[in-house]
Amino acid sequence: MRSRFTFLLGALVITAMPLALAQTGSLHLPGTVEAGSAFSIQSTGNGNAVLYIVGLGQVVKRKVQLGQTVSFAPGDLRSAGHYLAVLVGDSSTENGAFDVTAAHQPGALSFLAKPSRLAVDLHDGISGVVYVFDAFQNLVLATTQVSFQLSGVAGATQTRTALTHNGVAWTKMDSAAKEGSVQFVARVGDAASTRVMQLVPGNPCHLRMSARPSGQRLAVETEPVRDCNGNALPDGTIVTFTERYKGGESTVDVPLKRGVARTDMPAYGGAKISVATGVFVGNEIRWGGER
Fold this sequence. Notes:
Elements (H helix, E strand, L loop, with lengths): L1 H15 L10 E2 L3 E3 L4 E5 L4 E8 L2 E8 L3 E4 L8 E9 L3 E9 L4 E9 L2 E3 L6 E9 L10 E9 L2 E8 L4 E6 L6 E9 L2 E10 L3 E3 L2 E6 L2 E6 L3 E2 L10 E8 L2 E8 L6 E5 L4 E7 L2 E8 L4
Parallel strand pairs: 2-8, 10-16
Antiparallel strand pairs: 1-3, 3-6, 4-5, 4-7, 7-8, 9-11, 11-14, 12-13, 12-15, 15-16, 17-20, 18-19, 19-23, 21-22, 21-24, 24-25
């Protein structure tokens, strides 16, 4: 029975489609309906009929008395799109079309922010894109103002506003100078969405070491390694000590521990000891005299 009804309804829609854009004298339709709102359809004539409202993924069926107004409650039509209205009477079929548009009031945001982890003090290093939907998950195509706010590190706050184009708005933000978590918030009216991002230290900007005798060897140690904004580089960052001496070279890779790297190296007279992490080179020490 269900498959037979589906077949008949499909045939009805196909038959009526060539006339879908024409308003008839017996069926008076609204031009547009806001999603989720109440609306009505007026018919003329006498007798009984069946009214079908057909849209993408939705069919509404009502038995009607011709000449009376057919009322639809809020929420009967929720999906935005183009709808076909077909009135099937005892001796005739009338049809017309109307559009359901997204509700004007935004109800939800889809907020994409990247990257989730990045270095401090980057101009336009953070990007955010927002899609604005109504309460029924229809993309709101009307121009809407979106506010963006980035905050959370040492009380620093950045704000931006942008207008949507076809339901989408975007912006870029600078990452703060201090490491830590930040909150990136997009807001339209009462609808808001938050993303949490992690700021990590940038490239090293302060790398100095010292050396002292340790038995028959040299103990070398860095000062706390920091970036240009004073953020300590994370533990595990590799620091390379290189000792060049007559006829040879020794290299030791050491991870930072509590912000400092330390190790022992051979105590060759006249040796030159340098330190580096990544592409950043620190000071150089010349140890003792020639042997």
